[in-house]
Queue: 4 jobs
Job 1
Amino acid sequence: MTDASTHPVPDTAPEVETRAAMLIRPLYCIAIAFSLFQLYTAVFTPLSSLVVRSVHVGFLILLALTLYRANGSGQNKVPWYDWALGLTGFALGFYHWIFEADIMLRFLPETQDLIVGTLMVALVFEGARRCMGIGLAVVCGLFLLWGLFGQYLPEPLGHRGYAPDQVLQQLFLGTEGIFGIPTFVSSTYLFLFILFGSFLQQAGMVGLFNDLSLGTVGHTKGGPAKVAVVSSGIMGTISGSGIANVVTTGLFTIPLMKRFGYRPAFAGAVEATASMGGQIMPPVMGAVAFIMAETIGAPYVDVVKAAAIPAVLYFATVLWMVHLEAGRCNLKGLPKAECPRPLLALKERWYLLLPLMTLVWLLFGGYTPLFAGTIGLLLTVVLILGSALSGPLRQTYMKVAFWIMVGLACSAFFKYGAGAIFALIGILILPQLILKGGRDTLKLCLDSLAQGAVSATGVGIACAVVGVIIAILTLTGLPITIGSAIVDIGQSSLFLSLVLTMLTCIVLGMGIPSIPNYIITSSIAGPVLVQLGVPVIVAHMFVFYFGIMANLTPPVALAAFAAAPIANAPAMRISMICLRIAIAGFLLPFMAVYAPALMLQGDSLWMSAWVTFKAVFAIALWGSAAIGYLYAPLNWPERLWASAAAGCMVVAMPITDEIGLALGAAFLIWHWYQVRRGNSLSTEPV
């Protein structure tokens, strides 16, 4: 077994919050300026998209090279050379702004373009190395080297060869490289939603989520583990990182699970699996929903609809697994008297849900994600500032009147746009300057701006460096080569092609966060499935799911390594248990390929309901087989029986469905009969 202490875990949410709270004044001001720049350009769009991306990357380089030390020096001291590198990258970020017109008219890059481009790409690599670890930088570096020297490799790896200036032009001057679609999403939707989450956390949303999950499932059988699943699922609606979820909710849920009898490795696996599930939970899906919509040219709502049923089934699976484990080990829930009252929590803090509800309403109402995210963020700021002003009001009618006035003022955005809410925020800020406690409220808002920028730095720099892979793939046509090989296999066996695609996605996704993970896998493996006749959204969901599963799969399993120090258990042991708990993550993509109705592709709701029923039945059987328990312990023949029944229902063919349903029904009848007789054979703990 490999101990977690020997493997570094990437920067995570608590560390990010600590960074934001401990920033020295220059970095604090830079982070706030970064957030304000992104907010201003999102609302008023005064600059071209390419200029916004370039300045965005300049800010990312500056923060990445000053926040994340190369030499491990203290938080309050930034070496002069880090300042020099960071400010150089920041200054180069204005290159496209200054020379935008000239660059557009050039057919070939000039010497200064090559010098600036080389420096910019090198600084992006260094920023990615510091923020995300060596793995992502090495993967992108190998692609860059292949683009420069691939002509010297034998077939099928070789290509015709490209001059260095041609490669650099692809990387830097246009929108194919470090300023490509990933950076576009980072500089628009992604940054705003991370900033949105930062303000929601400051407003107390995390506390409300914890109270709701504890109050609803904390007292049930195996309640502490179910709390982890529910809280991670709710946090996943706004969070941008599954690893961050592990170490935020995990600090509370993993010790709670251990205290109530769950094995340390199982507790860590539950938290890791549930946290990674947050990446597939609409409406945000770790911001991948927005990138997927841009990549395939589909409306955002279509992406969310496709993800909805599998996401619910994924979390239902994890809940089912922990329920079975609790039954197998005879684990009880928390005393109900110690659990918060969910209705009381909602009654006291229901207003915290208003920005999130507005966000979802706008997204499904046809507004762009950029507009919806901006309005949700601004309403959260209004909520924080308004709460500080309404608090001193003693009479209920005065508070009601105050919030009615604020609500009417906010509704002006339908006529005047986001500028109306900006004006309202300005009006609410003025009293804070003189009222008692007002400056603390303003400081909280500034901290949220700084924390949002810091949280976005790692993911943003990853989006920029992954653009190198996109540029090289576009230049060389490698996806076509890989795709044709898998398509040839798929002519005789679609299932074998799916397995090869799954393995490709897991290998490519190891050690890489969800956003660059999806970008890489969708570029290489996504078009393959489309050529095999899989609907485009289902194909991209397939590669996205298995990219996410790479964070739970040995030997890398970043989510398991993040949970290991908290659980005090070997990361590899946690990872192996994750494979059983997350069985839906491996099963559902295959079912969706054979029956796209699972992702609401097609017009038949009856077919979607039928496929969902099959999936629920198959997952119930898989869970029983994986845990070794249903209403009583299962022996190995019974577990193999349940596994075979579930496996038959993956392929959407009448004969396999009938066999699977018959085997499953027979298994349930047999198990019920054995339980009644009290003759079920015991099984070894798993």
Note: The two ends are 16 Å apart (CA to CA).
Job 2
Amino acid sequence: MTSERLFLGVGQSATGLKWVDRLGQREANIALAMAQNHGFPDIVTRVLAGRGVGLDDAAAFMEPTLKSLMPDPTSLTDMAPAAARIAKAIIARETVAIFGDYDVDGACSSAILSRFLAHYGIANQIYIPDRIFEGYGPNPAAMQELAKQASLIVTVDCGTNSAAAIDAAKVAGTDVVVLDHHQVGGNLPEAALAIVNPNREDDLSGQGHLCAAGVVFLTLVQTSRILREQGVKLNTNPPDLLSLLDLVALATICDVVPLKELNRAFVVKGLLVARTQQNVGLAALARVSRIGEPLNAFHFAYLIGPRINAGGRIGDAGLGARLLTLDDPDEAMRIAQELDRLNQERQAMETIMLEQAEAEAMAELSSSSGPAILITANDDWHPGIVGLIAARLKERARRPAFAIAFNANGTGSGSGRSINGFDLGKLVRGAVEQGLLVKGGGHAMAAGITVERGKMGALRAFFEEQSAEMVGQLRGNASLAIDGALSAAGATVPLYETMEKAGPFGSGHPQPVLVLPHHRLIDARSVGINHIKVTLAGADGKRINAIAFRAVGSDLGDFLFRQLGQSVHVAGNLALNHWNGSTTTQFRILDAAKAV
């Protein structure tokens, strides 16, 4: 953001934020020139300019292509030996084991590689560790067992920091190739035959924004090239790698990696593949999620992704990866229904845990400004859900938050989520160095910790000492960046469709935040469990339906009910609503303010 100009003069909104114009004068000038040169709607050019797109790049940005954005796979360190080893396994018809992470990226990465190998008739198995009993990444016992069954183990979305486990596999006589994207936490595993990770220090490819599925895809591009150049007769045509882009897109969105450069092309092209429903597992998930419209990034992030994750959180961690490899519609539907059931169970558990966590947090916040970092803990919480609780607390209290589940031995597994501008991973690493945590790690916006109950008091004090000043400053300057203003009459389906070409939106490429200024709030009522449905009317009488998710009982919800019949400014995202065969625009409310 290059400007701190108040938007519509809103210095304090219903949620306590100031609204600032995302565009400074320079960006505003670029937006105007884009509209004149390319004929795009003004609001769309403001979105582009506000995200750093230059005047000369606008047309290409609106139509990203793999051809123009795909790097040479061998620009990634260790790609040549990694792809060569996978190609050798295919030519020699070896058995391959795939060790994946238990999240969406791990499931998609595993399924992509498994489908590629299966196309050539290569026997392969996917191993996903149990989140509770095994934890993240390869462990020696599992790798030794896999080494008995396969001559090559490929770790996907993990392995970079698993030296002991990879040593165990090598001692057992099995080669290990690592395809990962996580930050390096120490020395790389010397026993690995190859480690392809664009975030290793000696990788100069500039592809550090990729998720693991993107790394796997590039590896298979190079593997296919090797097989083709060697002229190997494999009694089958090469696989259609583009048909796997639906899984690359799903992983890219759900792993919240920056939606820029190649990642944008992956998602744009992957969503087109997903809409053809070639992957029967993905199609089954769409059906159980009751999605009655063309798949988009929102569906991946909030409907399909959570169902795949539900297996890893509270059920069988391997269900998601298994589902995405299936070609049998009946078996796919059975697993999709099981994941849907687990997701409902996870939601019920989350609701109870969140009520308890919020009660504890609000008690801390009621007496004063409260701690800079919220820490809630409970002996009855499920450790697979604490990350979701931390995210909700962070949203509610607008400060970093941790949720910790303690076991009977007094050891807590916790997860934290941060606010923009505060590096939570650095704070956790500092706590580890001070001996306050058994272990911990993460990145700026999220972290995981293991803590002993007896260290909780000292941990709270350390967190407060290290974060109070900076978190206080960030909270005091909390703002909502606005891309532009729109009227109910101007919020048309064609405008939405053009704006979507500036996407996909997500991490590193934020969803456009628009304001409906001076619109009369003519209806507001509770729907579902805790949502608020609103009808807004512009000065010309044109109406638009809007919804504020999880707003009942919040500052935003209270404001909407109080302002019924009044003129308000409403900030949010433009969306589409498909109902009974018709498509209309809808507004998703993020914030509101009095119109003065």
Note: Residues 329-366 form the longest helix (38 residues).
Job 3
Amino acid sequence: MSFPKGFLDELKGRIRVSEVVGRKVKLTRRGREFVGLSPFTNEKTPSFTVNDDKQFYHCFSSGEHGDVIKFLEKTENLSFIEAVERLAAEAGMEMPERDAHAAQRDKEAATLIDVMEMAAQFFRQKLQEGVGAEARAYLERRGMRGKTIDDFGIGYAPGDDRGDRTSLLKYLKSKNVTLDQMVEAGLVISGADIAEPYDRFRNRVMFPIADARGRVIAFGGRALSADAKAKYLNSPETPLFHKGRVLYNLARARKPAHDEGTVIAVEGYMDVVGLAQGGIYNAVAPLGTALTEDQIQLLWRMAPEPILCFDGDKAGLRAAYRAVERVLPLLKPGHSLRFALLPEGKDPDDLVREEGGDAMREVLAKARPLSEMLWEKETSTGQWDTPERRAKLEADLEAAVAAIGDPKVRAHYAEALRERVSKFFGGGRQAASQGGYGRGRFQQRGFRTDRFGGGRSFKGRGGFPRGDSYMPPVTPELRRSALASGATGEQGREGLLLLTLLNHPELLENYAEDISRIALRTPALDRLRNEIIDIAALHAPLEREALKGHLLSRDLAEIARRLEAGSAFRSDPFAWPDASPEEAEAGFLHTLARHRRAIMLEAELKAAERALAEEMTEENYARFRAIQEQLERSDVADGLG
């Protein structure tokens, strides 16, 4: 959502940063600023500052910096829009409308929110009346305390198929809610083939499902009758509720998740409620389905490494393995999952009720990392005592690694699993240099020094050196290239790197990991890079025609064709097939070095811009201009000179 010009400035002008921060941090005035202990690190000496005049906070111990909106995002696990909404309410400002259609949709949604809240009140009321006696007895048998019932808004939906099926319908009608609204909210079932509309939920313990702002948008009902067709029944998809995008207890769990540094995903409502009774408040649950991509992203907004909790039986392991498969393509640096497996035959609610919250905390403390669960998933399905079976295991692991979308994470998984394979098959085997995990991006550095027909490599070992100052010997051809003249911009550098690999795929034998780690900001080229690395991991040595044939089968040949057909790289002879291996490597490494340095300088420039905006000093300005000038110059030309 975009805001009208001046809206955010006015909002921040009405809200003092120190007032919002002061609710979480004990601040002491020091001159024109406030200081306190960092809410982001466990420090003993105050390094956290707040400046109301400049409208920002800065944490020297963690590097966190931002305005009052960002502070709420970081400390309350709120989205940008949610943080703005909260501050606008405090400041007495109306949120701006987006467009006529959006405003109408919001109005309709608000009406449905009102209807859902009426239904929630009705269910809570019925639980306390005589008709709710059976439901209260059920909750008492489950060890549910009155405060827990109130905190979670648990209620009871009366009625059954033999008696009155319209209790809620009649109640809502008395509140001037139309039948269409009841149906749209998923509370009443109606249709051309139904003689009389009736309540969707009957004779069930009701759990309200809230959105991220704590508003009731759906319900989950637990049947009290053993004859019920479904033990648990959720609201259908509605304009308010999309079950794959919601987590039960999300709004209530966000602050405890931030305080604890993690969030726990369990299987059902009763598990969440049971954990709360054991003093564990940072738990959420999907709504009757396996975790979706949207739900994983919600979990990552709450904590970088959520814990998924599963029963320790075969069904629980199958669910854990499905979660492993689902999350691999989504992995990104710093974000993963951990897995806690319960004793067989126990769920979280059982464990807390029978042994207390500490027993559950012990299980959570032993949560296993995703990489370990992936290894167990692939190795627990068979015997690996023959060459053919071992080859299959390696192929399965390579396929799993290939599913990881982020190149940096993929490279680290490849290295970790290669080491596991080596130990699993006896430690000292030679297979690591003969195929499978010993090839392409899985290869150890220093494996070969004569990869170009007996010629020595420039460094005498594989892998790009980590020092940014390194440059290979300069050939006359490289000195005449567009790269040397500084005419190659960011997209040009990215294209030049991939064109060189397309025509000299033997470079991947030593530099696959390096090319997988760099940032490529052109989506099409990033996709091409990932596919080239994946095929190189499976086939080595990789020949030029074989690579192009594979790209054709993956609908990537057109991207490669455009690189070769363009005129931008005609003056870079090292990128073309007739270049010698030494020339190709020299040009490739110079391009790689310049690209890495440019990205580093861009990051430094952004940091210098922020520092200059915060404090206009000669020192900050000089640093900003110095970095800016380095970017404007041809850094590779400097290196080739």
Note: Confidence is low (pLDDT under 50) at residues 428-470, 634-641.
Job 4
Amino acid sequence: MPTIRQRSALLVDEARARELTKASLRWPSLTLTATQLSDLELLLSGGYPALGVPAVAGDAYDGPAQLPRHTVEVGDAYPVTAGSTDLPRIPRPGTTVALRDSEGVMIAALRVTDAAGSTLSGLVEGLRLPDHPDYPELRFTPAALRLELLRRGWITPTGPAATALWADGLLHTADLDRIEALAAAGNSIVVLAAVGGADPADARHHLRVRCLRAALATLSDVRVMLALVPVRAMPRLTEAVAFGPDNTIHAGATTGDQPDAGQATDQATDRATGQTADQTTGHRPADDRETEPALAAEIIHRTQVSLAYGLGSMIVGPAPNAPGASALALLLDHGTRLPPMLTPPAVAAELVRAQPPRGERGFTVMFTGLSGSGKSTLAGLLACRLLERGDRRVTLLDGDVVRLHLSKGLGFSREDRDINVLRIGFVAAAVTAAGGTAVCAPIAPYGTVRRQVRTMVEDSGGGFVLVHVATPLEICEARDRKGLYAKARAGIIPSFTGVSDPYEEPTDAEIVIDTTQTSPQAAVQSILDHLHTHGWLTS
């Protein structure tokens, strides 16, 4: 197979970098997301040729004539900001934009050739590669990895011989068996961990790298190494896909049609294993027609990147019989020992340390309902019952109290109400991540924001229980202890939930309570029973 050489880094020299930095004072700037930054890093390091630009030999920067085309999506969260001149929000063709990281460091200059909607296309000049404080010894540019493989004798100057094994999640016992089989056949293996967009402050990122290292450390007399590459994690695969020296792509069958035993378990625990919550050992998702084109495109992209890194063959996807994330999550939730037939003991130890049983992890209970439904009463009573136990640290985040402190100054427009609920969710997630218990009682009328809060909390590694206090509007209005409904009917309070603004009833609530039919004590006991049943309370 012929060797494909690419530019090691599309970076300008020092003189051009100084020139661009000085000129950038007059340019608009675009702060890239972590994913955008990883895409740019791959481009600048020579990880793949840009659209319409062939692979080139040599490592030197040869000037703007050979700059690649690059596209950037401009989202509202990462707006273009004007420099010293008043430029339009979306720069016009001919404008040069400074592409910056989250700290404002200029990574590259993008000379815009086309602006279609929220997408900027143009020619890019790189000043530097993004900085990574985490695992510098595991990060290689394509040129650096090729040199390392040559030094080890794993590839030769006339053509690549090593195999790329892409790891989008963890490596389990079946995956290690596959590596040993490849090594026995004379292959050298480079495990490429896709970490594009990973946050170095995210504990799950570090857990995944520790698990990968622990897994590979169990192998002896095997030519294998680990490298972190700025490639996005791939959509879920249930088949191993291989690209071989004959330039063909091969797909291998997995373990059959049985779904993972843990599919219905807590999704936050699934995420901690480094894989998606619905990953199974052989069960295809319902939306195959949507995911397969994306998978095919990603496989082609991975093949291109593997070649750029000097690797002549490639395997993507889990090994047959490798456990899905949900199966591991189910065992971890219940404190069940992870058997060596599923995952190596060293990896199991890391997972158990990071994901103790549910009873030792934090969780959030969020009440949602109309004003006057009884949310605050139930939240306060639940907090008391949990504190009486003595084994839980409890933080009560009542909606009215939060507005006096955390959300002081916010009004009652939809935007401000969303911000208020998201602030509550942010604090609840922090409490949960620290192993505490957060009890929240905002009105939270909108489903989209409630789902955002659930995601924040579950991503922190804990549990989330949504309680819909479904007391009817007429009962809430009849209570009207604060006189709010009367003011709303009189038009004094605009956009009041239930009167002049909608309340979107949740369809994903774990518990539904109508306080006209249930006493506060009985309602709180039903919540405690739910927490016991699902393992969040152990006694």
Note: The first strand starts at residue 29 and ends at 31.
